[in-house]
Design a protein that fits this description.
The structure holds 2 protein chains of 2 kinds. Helices cover 63% and strands 14% of the residues of chain A. An 8-stranded mixed sheet of chain A has the order 7-1-4-3-2-6-5-8, with no helix packed on it. In chain A, a hairpin with a 6-residue loop joins strand 5 and strand 6. In chain A, helix 8 crosses helix 9. The termini of chain A are far apart. By secondary structure, chain B is mainly alpha-helical. Chain B is built from 9 helices and no strands. In chain B, helix 3 runs parallel beside helix 6. Chain B is elongated. The chains are: A alpha/beta, B mainly alpha.
Amino acid sequence: MSSSKISPELKVGILVLVSIMILFYMSFRIGRLGTFREGGYEITVTFANANGLDRRSPVQIAGVEVGKVKNIALDSYKAMLTLTIKEGVKVPVDSKIIVKAQGLLGDKYIEILPGTEKKFLAQGDRIKDVIPGIDFNEIFTQVNVAAKNFGETMGEFKDILGDKEKTNIKKSIANIESLSGDFRTFMTDNKGNITRVVNNTAVVSEKLSSIAKDIEQGKGTLGLLVKDDKLYNDAKETVTSLKNITKDIEEGKGTLGKFAKDETLYNDTKEAVSNIKEFTDGIKKGEGTLGKLVKDESLYNETEKAMKKIQKGAEGLEEITPVTILGTIFGFLF
Amino acid sequence: MFDAVTKKGLTPLLGILKELGNIGIMFLQSIYWTFRRPFKLNYIFKQMEFIGVNSISVVIITGTFTGMVLALQSYYGFRKFGAEGLVGTTVALSMTRELGPVLTSLMVTGRAGSAMAAELGSMRVTEQIDALIVMALNPIKYLVVPRVIASFLMFPVLTSIANFVGIIGGYLVGVKLLGINEGAFINKIIKYLDPEDIYNGLIKAAVFGIIMSVISCYKGFYTRGGAEGVGRSTTEAVVMSSVTILVTDYVLTSLMF
């Protein structure tokens, strides 16, 4: 038995040491034993209601824990909180502060919305800009107050109605009654017409709605006009092209442009036209071959005769053709 | 006749009250003798070795598997709500507040409490206790006080080990086996576990240690009826200690948390 050499005291000592180490390790991991190691500076803030907040509730900036609530005290019927902010975290003086909850039922915590100032809060300073958080109790209270106000208003309204007002109201009601009676007779007299009008309106509106639907869906020309970008784009392109063309014309580019701008063409054209005039004058007078053709009637007459002969020949051919075809078919069969 | 019936009905009740009184007297006596010289430290260390050191393996196995099964069970529950991250919290809180102290106490009761009752019982039936009295040595001082002190000191030690290995077991099953997000597991433990949870658990364990040792010593000390009586008082010691521990646990929990 070699183990008997180890004394019970030593064994117990080792066990106790191990358990104390475990305890210290767990306590430090949980981390709230060592409040003394948390340095930092304190700032104060006053809330109208610190419901749900507790000491050690976290203080966060952008979701990062930067400190804890150190103390909650009552200060002239408001909750004054002392926050310990970690050393090295600078909070601008114009920062805002808000109480938030993790989810609807979650734990409450304090969020600091940092400001933009270059001056920072120091030990003992106070954040003044408090955004009231959403408190469901408060909401219910407000709804309650609103309902109460509504009830009071109704009561006042009731009080306003004196005897005179009542008779007036009664008269008004009587007037409305007679008016509605007139209206009823009018309706009965014109029942047929009204029905027709109503039916027509219904039909028209139905059609309108179907048209509108078509337009919506881009059906039909109007629909396309409304829905299709292509037409618009085309029109745009056309306009641009036209613009370019007119520009070119303006600048004297291209045929049309030269047409518009170049004078040589004009001169040429003028010359050509005068030549043509001379030429046609010659033809008119019967000068040259063309002139004779135009002026000499003998050629015309001969041509007419020839045409007539050709016509006759063609007619004869026409009469012969069916017989020839028949012959060919019979020859083919027998 | 009526008198006889009343007597018959009252006898067991009176017996229970008598036993409670005897246990209370033994408890007060052991407190009294604790602060009386001479202090027999080597007796105490021997008992601490027996109760504490020799129970380590049992406690570690119990604690580890309790943590593991807690992680497994709570995982299947929490998964329905998508809150697997809370498994770590559940394991840590259950272990430190309840299962660590209670299961450790019950296991050690089974191991050491039965041994105490049997040891003192056989001493009683072989008249060794009477011999001590004859030698002017107080049997409470020499037999009961070291056991009570050793239990009082060792139960929290064993409980802290059980807590630790239980959370480790839960971690192994939850993170390594079931694939729970490791950061969520550990950070939720750190966030929701207070040092008070651990310390209150240890206080409970110390109380359970006193209960177990006093009851077991009492049962052994007042054994009657030879070898059979020793067996009976051993059984009674374990059952009574366990039941009392569980009842006290409820009372302590309702007081503490």
